[in-house]
Design goal:
Elements (H helix, E strand, L loop, with lengths): L1 H12 L1 H12 E6 L6 E2 L5 E13 L6 H19 L3 H13 L5 E7 L1 H7 L8 H4 L2 E10 L7 H4 L5 H5 L1 H5 L3 E7 L5 E3 L13 E4 L3 H18 L3 E8 L5 E9 L5 E2 L4 H4 L9 H10 L8 E3 L4 E4 L2 E4 L8 E3 H7 L2 H12 L3 H10 L32 H6 L8 H12 L4 E2 L4 E6 L2 E5 L4 E3 L5 H17 L13 E11 L2 E2 L5 E2 L2 E15 L6 E8 L9 H4 L1 H14 L14 H16 L12 H10 L3 E5 L4 E4 L12 E6 L1
Parallel strand pairs: 2-8, 25-27
Antiparallel strand pairs: 1-6, 2-3, 3-4, 3-5, 6-7, 8-17, 9-10, 9-24, 10-11, 12-15, 13-14, 16-19, 17-18, 20-23, 21-22, 23-24, 26-27
Helix pairs in contact: 3-4, 10-20, 12-14, 12-18, 13-18
């Protein structure tokens, strides 16, 4: 009687409560994440995209025995052809699952869209979820068609372009109902979504895949040869501020290099002699000196309050002009010039640095920009002392990121107009432009035109007859400045417990080169910074960094027709639509035969072939010029094909 009473109470008095509890514990809304928007290079090449991956399962209870027995052999053959294992394996697996009344049998994981469309049409599966037991689960994965190149700038959800525009790229999530079955597993109740996800919107960057590839490999080769710890290289379009390439490489414990951190944006450090451009420009623009002003560098050594300033050339340069001081990078010469004219009023020099924008962040869209530092009297972080001004003159005691330094050099190349570096051209929704990012002018004129012209002339002479004459080419003109700085080592305790004071290392250096090309009508500016090269192989900016600049400039010069290309803020991505049309037309015509992908962009060819089940390996970047398997050749899932790209 007690049991009957309890049953009546549960069934009728508290029935609604327990039925609701049952639904809550066995039915749920499962989130379907939307595809993040695509990130494109300026020419329409994909830099990052989301791809659907499908997991296929089978409810054997839903399939009637007659239907199962009639079609199992044909289904097993089809699965064998698609997934690679023998038909007998699938037949045994399906029969065993049928006997055990398995309602959630795993058939395949991570299928591409093309394979998913094929498997849906297989015997039994084509009957759908209720009669054929066909269960589909989809997820999205983020892929980068150009691999690790520019990985840190393209970024992730919290960093780089992905992070800066995450909300825009994200889209809206959808959901579908799922029911809890045995062993804690959840099975979709039906084959359609309750709410369809809305894909994210697209970002068109300023990056140029060809220039990015050139920059990456030029930096990598030099880093490997000099066994450097880390480094970066950035290429900017002079007139617009568009970043055409940025490469950041750090060394692993095994001596390999990868995109470890975004050093170009993040790392603020003492620049050394590349800062001399700001020092010389300040004095010339203030009209306290001219480039023809003579200074006595004596024997290349001078002492200031117990600290030594020394030139790299033993014996010094004697009496030389201010322009020659810059060309040969005389530390003594620049220190003497700045000391003579600003020692009594250091704020005059400091304010000039501020007018150049060297004390403020640029305010770029990408997160993590490093903070620059210019010392000044009364500063608590780095107290001003008797040699602060003089040390600043040759690039010590100050701190600045490579991108901030490049922005300053680019302003000189751009007739004094300082433009904000840009990584984004436009935002697009369903192939329609939603927002265009125009050029932003930070400072209309950082110095007089007379001063700018003189600075460009002495920078060109650095390459012709100065510290960077090793990269001079009669075929195209370049201008710039070398930099070599000793690295500061913080205070530490050694293995024996002794305290080692903070000091400038005689073993660790930063080699750099900043400049622009062509020298007469600058199209691009570029900076290369390499940290801690092997001192035995070389450590000067001219030896380590300048050759990277030359290779980048030379290859861009030879692959870009300067007299035809126009600088424009209006992005053109018509090629995106054309590539997709070509891609899908090839996909529809392919049926277990190798398609002809010659002439296609590498990213589209890889995507097409991988969706067919091939394993793709490729060399180079750009368009496909050769494929290892000929058009029309039969293939099996898992076969390897090699592509050579232009």
């Amino acid at each position: 009687m007690i049991i009957i009473g309890r049953l009546i109470n549960i069934q009728y008095v508290q029935g609604d409560k327990y039925r609701q509890l049952s639904v809550e514990n066995t039915i749920k809304n499962d989130t379907i994440f939307s595809n993040r928007g695509n990130i494109y290079a300026a020419d329409g090449n994909l830099l990052a995209t989301s791809m659907y991956k499908y997991t296929i399962r089978m409810d054997l209870v839903a399939v009637k025995s007659g239907v199962f027995e009639k079609n199992i052999k044909e289904l097993s053959k089809k699965l064998s052809g698609l997934l690679g294992k023998p038909a007998s394996y699938y037949q045994e697996k399906l029969r065993t699952a049928k006997k055990r009344r398995n309602r959630y049998l795993l058939i395949a994981r991570d299928l591409g869209y093309n394979d998913y469309m094929k498997i849906k049409k297989f015997p039994i599966f084509k009957l759908g979820p209720y009669k054929g037991g066909f269960i589909t689960e989809q997820r999205t994965v983020r892929v980068r068609p150009i691999g690790k190149i520019a990985e840190r700038t393209i970024g992730y959800r919290e960093a780089g372009i992905e992070g800066a525009f995450s909300e825009y790229l994200e889209g809206e999530i959808g959901w579908r109902l799922k029911q809890k079955i045995a062993k804690g597993q959840w099975k979709p109740i039906n084959d359609v979504n309750e709410k369809e996800p809305i894909d994210g919107r697209d970002v068109i960057t300023t990056l140029d895949v060809n220039i990015q590839d050139i920059t990456h490999h030029a930096l990598l080769r030099q880093m490997e040869y000099f066994e450097a710890e880390h480094g970066c290289a950035i290429v900017m379009e002079t007139a617009t501020g568009e970043i055409k390439a940025i490469s950041n490489l750090g060394k692993t414990s095994k001596g390999k290099y990868y995109e470890k951190r975004n050093y170009g944006v993040w790392e603020s450090h003492e620049p050394g002699s590349t800062f001399k451009l700001a020092s010389l420009m300040a004095a010339v623009d203030d009209k306290v000196i001219d480039t023809s002003t003579v200074v006595d560098t004596e024997k290349g050594i001078m002492w200031l309050h117990g600290s030594k300033v020394e030139d790299s050339q033993r014996g010094g340069y004697g009496k030389i002009s201010a322009s020659r001081v810059f060309e040969v990078s005389s530390n003594v010469g620049i220190v003497k010039l700045i000391k003579k004219h600003y020692d009594d009023d250091p704020w005059k020099f400091i304010n000039k640095m501020k007018s150049f924008g060297l004390d403020q962040k640029i305010g770029i869209q990408i997160k993590g920009e490093g903070k620059p530092f210019i010392p000044f009297p009364g500063n608590k972080r780095n107290p001003w002392n008797k040699i602060s001004l003089e040390w600043m003159a040759w690039g010590y005691g100050v701190s600045i990121t490579p991108l901030q330094m490049l922005t300053f050099y680019n302003a000189v190349a751009n007739d004094g107009e300082m433009v904000k570096p840009r990584f984004i051209k436009e935002l697009r929704v369903q192939n329609k432009t939603q927002k265009v990012f125009d050029k932003v002018v930070l400072k209309k004129k950082i110095a007089s035109q007379v001063t700018i012209d003189k600075m460009r002339r002495v920078m060109e002479n650095v390459v012709i007859k100065g510290t960077a004459d090793n990269i001079y080419s009669p075929n195209f003109s370049m201008a710039g400045k070398t930099g070599t700085a000793k690295k500061w080592v913080d205070k530490k305790i050694d293995k024996e417990g002794k305290v080692i004071k903070g000091h400038y290392s005689n073993k660790l250096y930063v080699a750099s080169f900043a400049g622009f090309f062509p020298a007469d009508k600058p199209k691009y500016s570029c900076i290369v910074v390499i940290h801690e090269p092997n001192k035995k192989k070389g450590y000067y900016g001219a030896t380590v960094a300048a050759p990277v600049f030359k290779e980048i400039a030379q290859k861009i010069y030879t692959t870009t027709p300067f007299n035809v290309k126009k600088v424009t803020d209006k992005p053109s991505v018509k090629s995106i639509d054309e590539n997709y049309q070509e891609y899908y037309s090839k996909l529809q015509k392919t049926e277990n035969n190798i398609p002809n992908v010659k002439g296609m962009s590498g990213m589209d060819a890889v995507s097409l072939l991988e969706n067919l089940g091939l394993v793709v390996k490729f060399n180079g970047s750009g368009k496909v010029i050769k494929q290892s398997k000929k058009k029309g050749t039969k293939f099996k899932k898992g076969d390897v094909i090699l592509l050579n790209l232009s």
